[in-house]
Amino acid sequence: MLALDLLLQGVVQGAIYALIALGLTLIYGLLRILHVAHAALFTLGGYIGVIVTNETGSLPLALIVAMVSVGLLGIVIYRLAYKPLLDQSPLVALIASIGLFIAFEEVFRLVFGSYGLSFENPPLRTQVNLGGGLLISHSKLLVIGMAIIMLSILAWLSTRTRTGIAWKATVTDSQIASSFGINIERVRYLNFFIGSALAAAAGVMVALLTNLVEPTMGAVASYKALAIIVLGGLGSVRGTLVAAIAIGIVESFGTVYVGHILDRDALAFAFLVIALMIRPQGLFKAG
Amino acid sequence: MLLSVSNVTVQFGGVTAVADLSLQVDRGELIGIIGPNGAGKTTLMRVISGLVRPTSGSILLNGQDVTGWTIDRRVRSGLALAQQIVKPLATFTLAENVALACGSRRMGSPWQAMTTVNRNAELQRGRELLELVGIAAAADDYPSAVPLGHLKCLELARALALEPELILLDEPLAGLNQAEAAQMADRIASLVTESRSIILIEHNLREVIRICPKLFVQDQGRYLDFGVTEKVMANPKVRTAYLGEGAI
Amino acid sequence: MAYEVILLTTMAITVLFALSLNVITGFCGQVSLGHAAFYGIGAYVGAMLTKGGWPLLMALLPAAGVAGLIGFFVGLMSLRVRHDFLAITTMGIAFLFVGFVRKQEWLGGEIGISGIPAFGFGRIGLLVVALACAGLFAAVTIYLKRSWMGFGFDSIADDEDTARILGIDVPRFKLWAFVIGTAGAGVAGALYAHHVRYIGPDSFGFVESVTVLAMVIIGGIGSVWAVALAAAVLSVLPLWFQFIDDYKLLIYGLLVFAVMRFSPNGIAGALQSFRRRLR
C-alpha cells in the first residue's frame, strides 16, 4: 500500500511541477531564456488565489482572476525586461531574471507580510476513498485534474486553432514562421501569457494543498523547474511532462528509502545529473 | 602511405551515408573527391577528420591508427580541415585566428600553454600566411567586418598554419564567382608540396578537373572509381552517375 | 576599526571567490550555477582541519586540493554537457553537496559547524591573509589570461568546435579551468569559515552560487579588474544598505536587474563605452 501511496504523492507533486515547468519550457523554446522570475509569478498566483477566495468565497473565480492577471503581468515582464535583451548572451537575461526574482520576492514580503496567508475556510479538504484504503483529498484530485485539463486545452489549442498552429510553427523555427507572415511578436506575447497563467494556476494549487502562501514559496520552483525543463530536453513539451512526473515520483520514493543520505532536492538533482550523463541532451529532443 | 582509409562505413540511425569506402593518399598528392549531391562526400571528409566516428572500418594517418582519435588530436598530428561553412572565431581578429592555429601544435599540452606568454612569433607568422592567401590588408579586422571570400581564404590560411601533411578542403570554391574560384583553385594547386597533400571536395567540376591529377568518385555512399583524372572522367559509370542514364 | 576590518575581509574573500569563478565562466566560457559548492567544500575541509588542531595557513592547501579534486570530476562531467545543460548540471552538483552535508552527522548535519577556531594572528592577520590570497589569485589569473592558455580559453569560450579544428585540446583546457577555479573557491571557502567562524549547509546554497555568478557577469565576463570591483562592491552592498534594512534585498535585486538591462556587458562594458565617448 505504501508504494501506491508514494506513487500517488509523486504524481500529484509531478503534476504541480509540470504546470510550473510547462510555461518555462514554452518560453525557453521560443526565446532561449532561462526565465527564473517565472517562479515569482507562481508565488503571485498563489497570493491572488488565496486573497480572492477569502474576499469572494469563490475558488473558481479566484483561479480565473489569478491566471488572467498573472498572465498579463507575464506579458509586461517580457516587454520591459526580456525584449531589450534578446540580442545579448543568454547569461545576461538569466542574471537579469534572477535580479527580478529577488526583487519580486521582496515586494511580496513587503506587501503581504513575511508570515504568509491562509484560506479562511480551506476548500476541498475532505478525503475520498479510491478503494483498497487508498485515501486522497479532493484538493489533490483537483490538482491532477487541473493538470490534465490545462494540458488538454493546450494540446487542443496548438493543433486545432490557427493561433495555436502559428505558435507551434514559431517555436519550431521563428524565421520560417515569420516568412509565412506569422506575427512573431504576438506569438511571444501569447506565449508569456499562457506560460505565466499556468504558473499562476500551479500557485493556486499549491496554496490549496498546503493552505499557506508565503513570500519564499517560489524558491523551490525557481530552480527545480529549471532542472525539469533541462531534463526534458529544453523546449520539448512532452519531455517536460515526463521529466516533471519522473522527478515527482523519484522524490516521493527517494525521501522514504534514501532520505537518510540525501535530502529531497539532492535526490531530484542526483536523478537529473545521472540522467544527463547518460543523455546529455535531455530525455527528449526539443520540438 | 600518408592516409589510408579502409572499408569505412557510416550509418546514421539506419541510413547508410557511406558504404565500405577505401582510399589511399600518398605524400605530395592532390586528390579531388567528386560525386553528385548526396554521394556522402562530406561524410567521408568528416570521418577522415574525426568529426564523425565510422560504424566500421579504420583510418590510418602516417601508419598510425587514428580511428578513435578526436579531431584536435588528429590536427596536432598533421591533419588540417577547412570547412565548407566558414567558422571564424568571431572575437578574434583574422591574424589572431591564424596565430592560434600556428601555436596549437606546440600548445597542445596545457602546461606548455600555461608557461608560454609570448605570441608575437605566431602573430607574425599569421600575417605572413594571410599575405600568402592574399588578405593581408584585413589582418586586424574582425571576421564580421570582412566579406565571405576573405573568410574562405582565412579558412585556408588557418589550415596552413597548422603545418599539416594533409589538408582536407570541403567546398572551398562554393559561393565564389568564376574569377575568384579560378584564382582560389590555382592557389590550392600551388599549396601541394612533396611533404603536403590535399584532398579537395568540390562541386565545381571544371576547376577540379583542371587542377586535380587524380579523382575519387563516389555515388550514394558507394565507391565508383579512383584513378587518373582523364581515365576516371572517361568511365561510363561516372558519366551516368553525373549526367543520368543514356547520356553517354 | 574592527568593523572596517571585517568589511574589508569580507570583500577580499568575496573577490577571491568571484575571481575563481571568472576562470571557469569568464575565461573558458563554461557557465557554472553551482560554484558555491566548492566554496563550501573548502570551508568544511578548512574548518574540520583547524578544529582538529591544524593551523589555518596549512589547512588552506588541503582545502584547495579537495575542492580542486572534486572540481576535476565535475569538469569531467562538464565535458559531456554544454551551455544551459552544463549550467543546470553544475547547479545539480551544488544541491547534491548541500543535500549530502545536511544528512552527515560528522559534518554537523543541519546544525553545521560552530566554534571554528579564530585565526592565530587575529582579525587583522586574517585580513592580511585574505588580501594576499585574493591578490595572488588575481595576479595568477591576469598572467593566465595573457598566456597561451588564456588564448586557448578565449577560443573555447568563442566556439569550442572551431577551437578543436584549430588543434586546441579542448577537454584538457576545460579541466584545467575547472581545477584552477574550484581550487581557488576552496581557499576562499576556508578563509570564509574562519572569518565568520560558523558554517552550515545553508551558507552554500543556490543563492550563493547565483550571487557569485552575478558578480562575474555584472563585472563583465572575463575582465579580472571589473569582476574584482563588482565582487567588492556587491559583497558589502547589503551592509551599506543597513539603514534601509527592510528594502535592502529589494534594491539589491533591482540593481542586479538594472545593470543587466541597461549595461548588458557589465561594468567592463560600461567603462569601455564611457572611454570611447571621452575620445
Describe this structure in words.
The complex is a heterotrimer of chains A (287), B (248) and C (279). With 287 residues, chain A is mostly helical. Chain A has helices at 2-31, 38-56, 59-82, 90-112, 138-160, 162-172, 174-179, 184-210, 218-231, 237-257, 264-278; strands at 127-129, 135-137. Chain A contains eleven helices and two strands, in the order ααααββααααααα. Chain A has a two-stranded antiparallel sheet. In chain A, helix 2 (38-56) packs across helix 9 (218-231) and helix 6 packs across helix 8. Chain B is globular and about 55 Å long. With 248 residues, chain B is α/β, with parallel strands linked by helices. Chain C has one domain. Helices cover 76% and strands 1% of the residues of chain C. In chain C, helix 1 (2-27) crosses helix 9 and helix 2 packs parallel to helix 4. The longest helix of chain C has 27 residues, at 170-196. Chain C is globular and about 50 Å long. The relative contact order of chain C is 0.20. The model of chain C has no long low-confidence stretch (mean pLDDT 88). Chains in contact: A-C, B-C. Chains A and C meet through helix 4, helix 9 and helix 11 of A and helix 4, helix 9 and helix 11 of C.
